[in-house]
Amino acid sequence: MTEAAPAQRVDHLIIGAGFAGLCAAIKLQEDGERDFVVLERGPDVGGTWRDNTYPGAACDVPSQLYSFSFARNPDWSSSYSPQPEIQAYIQRVARRSGTLDRFVFDTTVEDADWDDTAQRWTVRTSGGTWSARTVIVGAGGLSEPRLPEIDGIDTFQGTLFHTAQWDHSVDLTGKRVAVIGTGASAIQVVPELQKIVAHLDVYQRTAPWVIPRNDRTYGDLERRALRYVPGLQRLYRTGVYLAKEATVPAFTLWPGISAPAQKQALANIRKGIKDPALREKVTPHFAFGCKRVLISNDYYPALAADNVDLVTDPIAKVTGSSIVTADGTEREIDVLVVATGFYTTELPITEHITGRHGQTLAEQWRDSGMTAYKGTTVPNFPNLFFIVGPNTGLGHSSMVLMIESQVAYIRDALRTMRTGGYDVVEVDQAATDRYNAALQGRMRRTVWSAGGCDSWYLDAHGKNTTLWPRSTWDFRRRLASFDPEAYTLSRAARPVHAREDVTA
Ligand code: NAP
């Protein structure tokens, strides 16, 4: 029997090389840390923007907000960037940051266990074992594709793939294609497929709200101005930021104020579709904003095209070559595209992270749903930090803002440990409970909870464990500095409650 190779030791281990992991790596390096590693299961940086390469993939958050504040990009081609530009941006930032030598690609984390004796994490991966003092999880909230559980789907003989795992080797030209789902991914891919396929069936379970995209290409002059006029891009970004933040009360306090946007969405239907029956089918029956509000100019015209059918009868089963709906209709297809979203409230990685008492995160969260303190730390999971953790998602603006806030908080936590000589930091249960009670109290009033829809924001108990119910500015303020009074910090021998001894 061969002996297992010894674990490689690092101070900090970051999981994931998307916006979150990359931001953490850059900021750790800025703080003078070099003893860290970024483990990434894919072959490159980019995370969700590396994986989602389906035709039409683009950002539905304005480009000006879709970059790090410390690496603004004057070169976006339009007000909503296409996926290849975002991926190229992330690659460029990674390359220029000088951190890439710390990244280990094609390496999947299999298990991470807290070793209470060593006071370190043991992280087993497809490429060997690591021992780390702290683990930063930046594995993404929309990174695990969810395949639909439909009778017979595994017997389908044609080509089947998820939008996040697009098979570019398949030529869809002239084929009979079905798309299941009408969320953010589907409404981008449907217009592109409509242009090339012989026939497209779009299977809609719930009609989404879709407002016009209002996209605009940036001219050469404008891009030059953004690059060279001092302060211009910052000003532009601030304007877009404030416009987005102004929409928060419509989601969290007074859904009634989104009435004009809802009118715009209804006008978008009338503009794109002439057939009254089809108009009726695509008209949502839940409050505007309850599910993610989608933006598109070409989705409705695509549905109205002669080679497209919008199917609203529930899917009964999939056969070797067709989809059969509950009314008994069978539609033959060559290719099945599932645009059915992601695991969001039961993140698969939580089954592989085991804390202080031998319980996995998934087990700890089984009854409560995902809960963390400030979306970042979890009782019983010492020295573990989440980026894009529970209740940090947004319905209105850019996740990059939230990522930067969380990374600032984690840096300050690590600084506190360093300067105070602490080995272990663990958030208190009471602080976590108080934080989440207030957060969920706030959540009750939001359109996401009260708007009469089911969405990926809610877990199996109907609890919203994914979104942040306030402004991004508020989140940033709360995470601006580490708050040791919510934690127990300990040196190797004796645990010290932070209230007794805070040197940072
Ligand atoms: P999604 O919003 O979760 O949409 C999934 C769709 O599949 C929904 O229409 C859902 O119907 C349907 N569906 C799920 N299971 C089904 C089943 N068994 N049978 C029939 N229909 C089923 O997923 P997504 O479109 O991939 O988007 C997820 C999130 O990713 C977005 O909300 C957004 O935050 C992000 N995203 C962003 C962009 C962008 O920036 N441009 C693009 C894509 C995605 P129901 O509505 O009835 O559940």
Characterization of the model:
The chain is an alpha/beta fold. The protein has 2 domains: 292 residues, FAD/NAD(P)-binding domain, CATH 3.50.50.60; 148 residues, 3-Layer(bba) Sandwich (FAD/NAD(P)-binding domain), CATH 3.50.50.60. The strands form 5 sheets. Strands 1, 2, 3, 4, 5, 6, 17 and 18 form an 8-stranded mixed beta sheet that branches. The longest helix has 22 residues. Bound molecules: NADP nicotinamide-adenine-dinucleotide phosphate.
Concise overview:
This protein has 504 residues and is of the alpha/beta class. It contains 15 helices and 21 strands. The radius of gyration is 24 Å and the shape is globular.
Each distinct ligand:
NADP nicotinamide-adenine-dinucleotide phosphate
Reading off the top of the CATH hierarchy, the class of the largest domain is best stated as Alpha Beta
Mean pLDDT: 95
- Strand proportion: 15-25%
The percent range for helix content is: 25-40%
Total domain modules: 2
CATH topology category name of the largest domain = FAD/NAD(P)-binding domain
User: Span between N and C termini?
Assistant: 49 Å
Number of distinct beta strands = 21
Rg, nearest Å: 24 Å
Q: Which descriptor suits the 3D outline?
A: globular
CATH architecture level-2 label of the largest domain:
3-Layer(bba) Sandwich
Q: In terms of per-residue confidence, which ranges show pLDDT below 50 for 5 or more consecutive residues?
A: none
CATH superfamily of the largest domain: FAD/NAD(P)-binding domain
Main sheet record: 8 strands, mixed
* Structural class by SSE content: alpha/beta
Please, how many helices? Answer: 15
